[in-house]
Every structure is written in C-alpha cells, then in structure tokens.
C-alpha cells in the first residue's frame, strides 16, 4: 500500500494556509499571561495560557513588537495601575500568524486594560459569594484577641518598606511599650503571592508557638498588584486560621476580600502599629486613672483620720486637769494625797493641799460647815 508522504515544509505550508483562511483578520483574544519577557531591543514576548478546573488546556506564544510595546505598555499601566505582568487576565487584539520555520505565533497590536479590571472585579464578587455560602466570611470574628496582645506573628516581605515602617513604628513607640514580633517571610505580590502567604499562615499555625495575633502586612500598590488579596484560597486560609488575623494591605481606597474575612483590618502597616500602641496606651491611661483615684481615696482616708486625731487631741487637751485649773478651778487633795471631792468628813486640824495651775498651797482646816441634804461622798 502506497504511503501518503509529505515533507515538513509542505505540512507547515498547508497549516499556514489553513490558519490564514480561518483567521484572515485580527481577533480579540482573552487569555492569562503566564510569562512575560521584555527584550533589550524593545520587543515583548508573552506566553498566553488558559486553564480550567483540571489544569492547563491551551498555550500559545505571542509577541508585541517594539513599536507597539512602547505605546501599549504605558497606556495599560496608566489605566490598570499596574504594568503588564504574569498572572493577569487580558483581552488583546491579535493577528494569528503561522510560519513554516517558527510555527504558530500571535502578533499583539492592542490591549484593553478596562477588561482586565472588570474580570478581576467579577472574580472578586464570585469569591465573596462563595465565602458567604461556605460560612467563612465571619469565622474570624468568633475568635477573641487578648486584652493586651504581645506575641505577634508577622507575614510580610522582610525587605518591604511597609514592613520596615511597621517595625520601626511599633518598637520605637514614644511610650516605651514592648512587643514580641516574629517574621514569617512570603511573597506579597504577583502570581505566586496568594500561595506563598497561605503557606506562611500554615507555618505559623504549625510552629507550636503561642501567638496572640497574626499580621499580614503589605504597603500600597497598583490595583492589579494587590489582586492576590482577593484570591479565594488565601481568603479561606485566613478565615480558617485558629488565631486572630489582622490585615494591613494597600491604601485607603482599597478593600480586599482578605480584609473582609480577617478579624479586623486597617489601611496601612503604620496604622496597624498605631492600633496596637493605642491598645496599650488606653490600658496605661486606665491604670493611671485608677492609681490617681486610689491615691485620692487614700489621701481622703488619711485626711479623715487626721481630722479624727485632731478632734481627739482637742478633747484630750480640754480634759487635761491643767487646762481646767487655768480656768480658775482648784484641785483639793487630802492628807493622804487623795482627791477630796467634798467637805464631808473634814474636821478642824486636817491638812489639805490646794492645787492651782501655777502651784500648790498647803492648808489646815479651821472649821467645817456642811450643807443640808447633800449625799455623802462615795469613792
């Protein structure tokens, strides 16, 4: 049986003719960027791909010639807030090209940055709906943070400005409050960031060390740079973490899915440092207020006791016989030195001592006169 043999060039030529008949003009293509290589000469080479639940299902090489890349790259970044990079979903206009020597390639001459933003927002809304359906959105809110959180696990990039700002602000606070922090490094942006942060969360949970809180820190960035913080896998990791997770990612206008599922979130790493310092400052102010009230109560108690002592002293002084004698009274002692309380029983010749405030007189009774109906003296 005769074999139908074609050479490679003929095969490639047939493929080229078929491709060019199928795609005679330019088409808008949606795909994910799985690799980007900008060459020194100005051309940019991309690897475009598509995946489904089972994994990668399609892949193709694309190129943006230097003359177009010089225009498209800054335009895309100005609208999307991020440069063209790996992990992005893009809508690009391509001319399908097939070369007998180099095979299939896609020549990109336009890109729609608003589509990339729109797709990310749709994915974000789907993620929020899924987390709510699975009961994960409020799971962190059920955890309790210690009244004075001290041991803090920090997930960030060690060389990131946001992490350095946080550490300096927290540990060099004006009050001198002391905190314990331990860094668990991770990628904080890009295609691998969500998986890297999730792995760091697992590392914290498996460390065996008791942390009061887990902090995820990342300074500001472009919207697409921060898109990983809307990732379902990362959000579900945060929701299921057994210790309170606090996030500080992005700028004031950014609210990410990770912020929604976290125990709480603030806008910047420095703001999170202030959040912890304020807890301690509030407790310190409360203790100072309590100490002040205690000191005041103690002082009031001392003053009351002093007043009572002064009153007793006044009473004692007023009962002092010497003060009584100064008012003109006389203390009379009989011959045995006992107080003579009355005239009864006294007879002429008895010796008496008359004590005044300024001295004493020794006297002898010459006569005694008694009053009628006066009861006798009792000792």
UniProtKB/TrEMBL annotation:
GO terms for molecular function: exodeoxyribonuclease VII activity; nucleic acid binding. One of its GO terms (biological process) is DNA catabolic process. InterPro entries: Exonuc_VII_L (IPR003753), Exonuc_VII_lsu_C (IPR020579), OB-fold_nuc-bd_dom (IPR025824). NCBIfam families: xseA. Keywords: Cytoplasm, Exonuclease, Hydrolase, Nuclease. This is Exodeoxyribonuclease VII large subunit. One of its GO terms (cellular component) is exodeoxyribonuclease VII complex. It holds the Pfam family tRNA_anti_2. It comes from Candidatus Cryptobacteroides gallistercoris. Residues 136-312 form the Exonuclease VII large subunit C-terminal domain. Its EC number is 3.1.11.6. The keyword Hydrolase applies. Residues 8-112 form the OB-fold nucleic acid binding domain.
